[in-house]
Design brief:
Elements lengths: L8 E2 L1 H27 L5 E4 L3 H16 L4 E2 L6 H28 L8 E3 L16 H17 L5 H27 L1 H9 L9
Parallel strand pairs: 1-3
Antiparallel strand pairs: 2-4
Length: 201
């Protein structure tokens, strides 16, 4: 199939930028984890272990976006190669910056698997003042950056629905936990702040 629907040509600048972005995202993840470890952990009040399945589905979606051969055929100094690198850089800066700001706002509330603790607070500051799921928005930026850097735009036909399914199922379970813990306070927050796009969706 790749003979008839080849991947997009890419240049070395975009690949270099995505590698730096991968490193930055990994460091931001380690910092978020360290922040939780340093905080005194209160007893867990609720959890949704099923979200592990949907984390995997999200990961598969992102993996699909990056899967396949990479055609490094652009002149590194060409306008197309530079434009790709700039787009990748902006998306990865957005992904790393949004993830870092979100995990910092969550503090000890941040966790990979959906859970709440007895001292859990409803975070409404930082990126959470604009959207309820900024970390998932950051992950989508990551996916699109990788797609551009690797020249795999056609993969998005499958990657987006798979990623969206995993994301939606995680959101449903996380909202259930938060609504159970915070009741009307969460309903008020959800009525004011959209899930993914400020003021729209």
């Amino acid at each position: 199939m790749s003979r008839y629907f080849p991947n997009d040509p890419v240049g070395l600048p975009g690949l270099a930028v995505i590698c730096v972005g991968f490193l930055g995202f990994f460091i931001a993840l380690l910092i978020a984890r360290a922040r939780v470890v340093r905080a005194a952990a209160a007893p867990m009040s609720q959890s949704a272990p099923i979200t592990r399945l949907w984390i995997v589905v999200q990961g598969v979606g992102i993996g699909i976006a990056g899967f396949g051969p990479i055609r490094v055929t652009l002149d590194p100094m060409s306008s197309q190669a530079i434009a790709e690198a700039i787009m990748v850089g902006l998306l990865m800066a957005g992904a790393v910056g949004l993830f870092n700001a979100s995990s910092r706002a969550m503090g000890k509330n941040w966790a990979v698997v959906a859970q709440t603790r007895s001292d859990h607070v409803l975070v409404q500051n930082g990126p959470f003042a604009w959207v309820r799921n900024p970390i998932y928005v950051a992950m989508s930026f990551f996916m699109f950056a990788m797609t551009i850097a690797f020249g795999h735009s056609r993969n998005l036909v499958v990657a987006i629905p798979v990623f969206a399914l995993g994301t939606w199922m995680r959101v449903v379970r996380e909202e259930g936990l938060l609504r159970s813990q915070f009741g009307a306070a969460y309903d008020d927050y959800a009525a004011r702040v959209k899930r993914f796009v400020p003021g729209l969706f």
